[in-house]
Design goal:
This protein is α+β, with helices and mostly antiparallel strands. The structure holds adenosine-5'-diphosphate (ADP) and magnesium ion (MG).
């Protein structure tokens, strides 16, 4: 082995560059951050060839004095920190003093700068880390830094560059993260000779968001805000009709810096639990502001990740702020007029499907609805009034709908099972059942189409969860316990989660080998064989055992039971059953989505109907 020796400054810079400058987008990020730190009110970014050929950032900020130019590109030279303690109260985006040194080491960098009080500017060129003479030049106050031929002297890195389009995609994302955080600064972005963004300064954050992601999305945003001691959370979250297949649209700004934080992302997922389908991610724009000493930003070379002094309370604050907001918001998805799809990547197939539903409904209505007297079409037909309403199957048990969780008579004194279903809090006009799966009702706003299974499932889920929390789940005891043969992992999971199962009303005993005795099971599932219920729950447990989160597991089991107990798509409902189901709609916290996150109802507004029928 060769002897140990000190590395040259140039090699040190190249190594640092490896961490800081991954691709052209990193240059854009560092230069833009410097401009923001310099107090600029306008920042113009222009790139050529995806940024690999050229990146130029021009600002009208504080500028750099001529004699300081060489220091700006020296490593570990910064104007933003002076003593060690400063490191723990960083209020600027930069502080490490190595970005310009790193960038200048692996490119041809030209800096032109002028401080507001000097007569003229000065220029410094650095080629592959070699400084040329500082020369006077004419330029407006502020700084312009041009970085050309990135990685020209590190060919291996150059090889890692992707297509111009991909690199520009990254540049654009870097630009977005900074421009989103600073709506008070005018930003522009050009690629080759194309103007990509021109974002004048604005007061309202929603306006900046809308410039990036379009007005329809911005209009679906719900404002959230909360304060916990010195920590302030504010911003917008999209209503659940808007979501993405990944978490890229979760913008979180910590003291003006875009960050990624797994724990806070998890809080977002939790907040939207039950509102979004699995595999979908919420869209959020949030700012978190706190005293700089409460967070360590010096844990990641590009400062994308930070370490909070106290992460627990932040998690809770985020989760509860969003949850509380959702509980008080009407989240029923609106069906938008054609061509006004709020999310660019929204599934067009779904829109077609929804339109088809409307058409099907209209057709079905004509075929099945026989007016009696002069009732308007918004009134539900009485039982047996129309040919299409004769029961084709076993009648449904009404009790499944109107008293899903009343304990058996006599157990609670205040309960009277003879009582008719509680009248709903809002007058239920009645509804038309179509295709044995949807309920169509007239509402204040227009027409609401409800998915009977999804709604019932949601109602049962919430009731069951409530019961589990207060330990009141009803168990149907079996006179003769039923033995169920299981696979070894299923039997093990059953015994391991015996208490959890008991909470859900599923009482089991070991019987020897891989056989389990079911002694009692959830009364809600009276129509289904105990063995089937147990197997279904165990399937969840065996799958879910891999994810350690207990709330996830419990929710999963609750979903399974609610789903099994709910009326199915295809079940013909009697008018009283429809009334009972709609009556309970208002009793649950979130009647807008089933526990799997599918919407339970769609609203076609009157406006939308008028528009489609060409009335407006
Ligand atoms: P850092 O931002 O971590 O301090 P940099 O290498 O990015 O390190 O920049 C070094 C120094 O150069 C900064 O501390 C700042 O004083 C100066 N500087 C860089 N860019 C600008 C700019 N656009 N306007 C004014 N000063 C700048
Ligand atoms: Mg910097």
């Amino acid at each position: 082995m060769s002897s140990i020796h000190q590395l040259s400054q140039s090699l040190i810079n190249k190594i640092a560059a490896g961490e800081v400058v991954e691709r052209p987008a990193s240059v854009v990020k560092e230069l833009m951050e410097n401009a923001v730190d310099a107090g600029a009110t306008r920042i113009d970014v222009s790139v050529g060839g995806g940024g690999a050929e050229m990146v130029r950032v021009v600002d009208d900020g504080a500028g750099i004095a001529a004699e300081q130019l060489p220091l700006a590109v020296a490593s570990h030279a910064t104007s933003k920190l002076s003593e060690a303690d400063d490191l723990f109260r960083v209020a600027t985006l930069g502080f490490r003093g190595e970005a310009l040194a790193s960038i200048a080491e692996i490119s041809r960098t030209t800096i032109r700068s002028r401080t507001p009080d000097s007569q003229g500017g000065a220029e410094l060129c650095v080629v592959g880390g070699k400084l040329e003479e500082v020369t006077p030049c004419g330029c407006p106050p502020g700084t312009s830094i041009e970085v050309a031929n990135l990685f020209f002297n590190t060919p291996v890195r150059r090889k890692f560059l992707r297509t111009t389009q991909t690199e520009f995609g990254h540049v654009s994302e870097a630009f977005t993260r900074i421009a989103l955080a600073e709506p008070g600064i005018h930003f522009t972005l050009r690629h080759n000779d194309r103007n990509v963004f021109d974002l004048p300064a604005c007061d309202a954050w929603r306006e900046r968001i809308s410039k990036f992601f379009g007005r329809p999305l911005a209009e679906c945003l719900i404002a959230v805000e909360s304060t916990d001691g010195p920590v302030r959370l504010a911003g917008y979250v999209a209503d659940p009709s808007q979501s993405r297949g990944n978490n890229k649209m979760q913008y979180l700004m910590l003291n003006g810096r875009f960050i990624r934080d797994r724990s806070l992302q998890h809080a977002l997922t939790e907040a939207y639990r039950g509102l979004l389908m699995t595999g979908r991610y919420p869209i959020t724009f949030l700012r978190l502001d706190m005293p700089p000493e409460m967070v360590d930003v010096n844990v990641h070379p590009t400062k994308l990740e930070v370490r909070f002094q106290n992460a627990g309370p932040l998690y809770s604050q985020l989760l509860s702020t969003l949850r509380n907001k959702f509980l008080t918001s009407d989240l029923t998805p609106r069906v938008r007029p054609e061509g006004e799809d709020p999310s660019g990547s929204h599934d067009p197939a779904r829109a077609v499907e929804m339109r088809q539903e409307l058409v099907d409904w209209a057709k079905g209505e004509v075929a099945a609805w026989k007016p009696s007297g002069d009732r308007g079409p918004s009134t539900a037909p009485a039982a047996g009034s129309g040919g299409g309403y004769s029961r084709s199957k076993e009648p449904l048990q009404l009790s499944r709908l109107d008293r899903p969780w009343t304990p058996p008579p006599g157990e609670t004194p205040e309960d009277n099972p003879q009582q008719p279903p509680q009248p709903p809090s809002e007058a239920v006009v009645g509804a038309l059942q179509i295709h044995n799966r949807y309920l169509v009702t007239e509402s204040e706003e227009g027409v609401t189409i409800i998915d009977q299974h999804a709604l019932h499932e949601r109602i049962l889920f919430e009731q069951l969860r409530e019961r589990v929390l207060t330990e009141e789940v009803e168990t149907q005891s079996l006179l003769v316990p039923e033995p169920v043969d299981l696979s070894a992992p299923e039997a093990a999971a059953a015994m391991e989660h015996r208490e959890l199962l008991a909470k859900l009303g599923m009482k089991i005993e070991p019987f020897g080998g891989d056989t389990i005795l079911v002694a009692g099971y959830p009364a809600m599932l009276a129509n289904i064989s105990p063995a089937e219920v147990l197997r279904e729950l165990l399937e969840r447990l065996v799958e879910g055992g891999k994810q350690p989160d207990r709330t996830d597991l419990l929710d999963d089991l609750l979903h399974t039971i609610a789903c099994k107990a709910a009326v199915k798509a295809g079940d013909r409902l009697a008018p009283e059953e429809i009334t009972a189901l709609l009556g309970q709609r208002h009793t649950v916290d979130d009647a807008h989505h089933c526990p799997h996150g599918r919407p339970t109802a769609l609203v076609f507004t009157r406006e939308e109907l008028d528009k489609r029928f060409g009335r407006v």
